[in-house]
């Protein structure tokens, strides 16, 4: 159930308790969602990357990738 902004202001302590015990609480203004109040623990969990980009790349499967290149010279082109 979303909270109207005025009600959220008046019952802020209850809003915070519900965010901690029941999960994110949506606050609306003029019928539009404007903010979501979440418990600090959940906020920090969502903000912390589980691994950096290098770790992500290194966590991929080990494959033997052989890249070869043709050693022949390019064809001759007559520019006359």
Note down, in words, how this protein is organized:
With 80 residues, the protein is an alpha+beta fold. It has a domain at 3-53: YefM-like domain (YefM-like fold, 3-Layer(aba) Sandwich), CATH 3.40.1620.10. 39% of the residues lie in helices and 16% in strands. It has four helices and three strands; from the N terminus they run βααββαα. It has helices at 5-10, 12-22, 40-47, 53-58; strands spanning 3-4, 25-29, 32-37. The protein has a three-stranded mixed beta sheet with strand order 1-2-3. Strand 2 (25-29) and strand 3 (32-37) form a beta hairpin. The radius of gyration is 28 Å and the shape is elongated. The N and C termini lie far apart (80 Å). 4% of the residues are buried.
* Number of separate helices: 4
Strand content: 15-25%
| Main β sheet profile | 3 strands, mixed
Q: What is the CATH superfamily of one domain?
A: YefM-like domain
Order of helices and strands: EHHEEHH
Mean pLDDT: 92
Radius of gyration: 28 Å
Structural class by helix and strand composition: alpha+beta
What is the level-2 CATH architecture name of one domain? Answer: 3-Layer(aba) Sandwich
> What is the number of beta strands?
3
Largest beta sheet: strand ordering? 1-2-3
General form: elongated
- C-alpha end-to-end distance: 80 Å
């Amino acid at each position: 159930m979303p909270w109207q902004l005025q009600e959220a202001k008046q019952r802020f302590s209850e809003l915070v308790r519900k965010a901690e015990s029941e999960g994110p609480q949506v606050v609306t203004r003029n019928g539009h969602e404007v903010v979501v109040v979440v418990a600090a623990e959940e906020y920090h969990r969502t903000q912390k990357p589980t691994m950096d980009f290098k770790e992500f790349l290194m966590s991929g499967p080990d494959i033997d990738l052989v890249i070869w290149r043709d050693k022949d010279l390019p064809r001759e082109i007559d520019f006359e």
